[in-house]
Design a protein that fits this description.
The chain has one domain: CheC-like (Chemotaxis protein chec), CATH 3.40.1550.10. Helices cover 43% and strands 28% of the residues. It is built from six helices and seven strands; from the N terminus they run αβαββααββαββα. Strands 1, 2, 3, 4, 5, 6 and 7 form a seven-stranded antiparallel β-sheet that branches. α1 crosses α4. The two termini are 17 Å apart. The protein is α+β, with helices and mostly antiparallel strands and 211 residues long. β2 and β3 form a beta hairpin.
Length: 211
């Protein structure tokens, strides 16, 4: 069986980028109200990458990252990961909970910080999936996100098992989060890795009217 993910073109990626930017706008609004200050988000690039390139994007399989993992359920299914370098995650959560001592590095991060990171995952994934649902008319639901602080290879392996049987590529939605009016040193760069279950993309792009 020829896997649909291998037939994705630049047109498909442009559509996913547009959907991603709509989702990012929704997420920025939610984060701004949560933080009580103006947050901007955008999706500079959506790309298809091989498993090896995905590892490189995260800094290598052994790089310790903060990862949020969830399953997509409903009319189309798959796995979604949001990955942040650990120092950027620390900085973002410190800002979110007003605690400049918070760190994922120390092995025992506070419950408040963990909850804040999960809430970030809820907001981002919910915003992206609702934008995708609006475009396609499909019912798509995120499961409750799980949170891991581990080597990237260990975090991502759960999502690779099914997809690796039919493809060696994943979709990456690059995401930038920054506070309005501040210089880009405070910008947070994360990656969404979208790993569809076999055959899911056929139904998504059919619903988008792209053969």
């Amino acid at each position: 069986m020829m896997n649909e993910i291998q037939k994705i073109t630049s047109l498909h990626l442009d559509i996913l980028k547009e959907i991603g930017n709509i989702g990012a706008a929704h997420a920025a609004t939610a984060l701004s109200s949560l933080l009580n200050r103006k947050i901007d988000m955008h999706v500079p690039k959506v790309e298809m990458v091989s498993f090896n390139d995905m590892m490189e994007l995260a800094g290598g399989a052994e790089t310790v990252v903060v990862g949020i993992f969830l399953r997509i359920e409903g009319d189309s299914e798959g796995s979604m990961f949001f990955i942040l370098p650990i120092e950027q995650a620390n900085r973002f959560i410190q800002s979110l909970i007003n605690d400049d001592q918070f760190s994922f590095n120390d092995g025992q991060p506070t419950e408040l910080g963990i909850s804040a990171m999960q809430e970030l995952g809820n907001i981002l994934s919910g915003s992206y999936l609702s934008a995708l649902s609006d475009f396609t008319g499909m019912k798509l639901y995120p499961t409750v996100p799980g949170l891991s602080v581990d080597m990237f290879g260990a975090i991502i392996s759960t999502g690779l098992i099914e997809i690796s049987e039919v493809s060696d590529q994943v979709i990456v939605i690059n995401t930038s989060i920054f506070e309005d009016g501040f210089d880009n040193r405070n910008e947070v760069h994360g990656h969404f890795f979208l790993l569809p279950d076999p055959d899911s993309f056929t139904s998504i792009f059919k619903a988008l009217g792209v053969s």
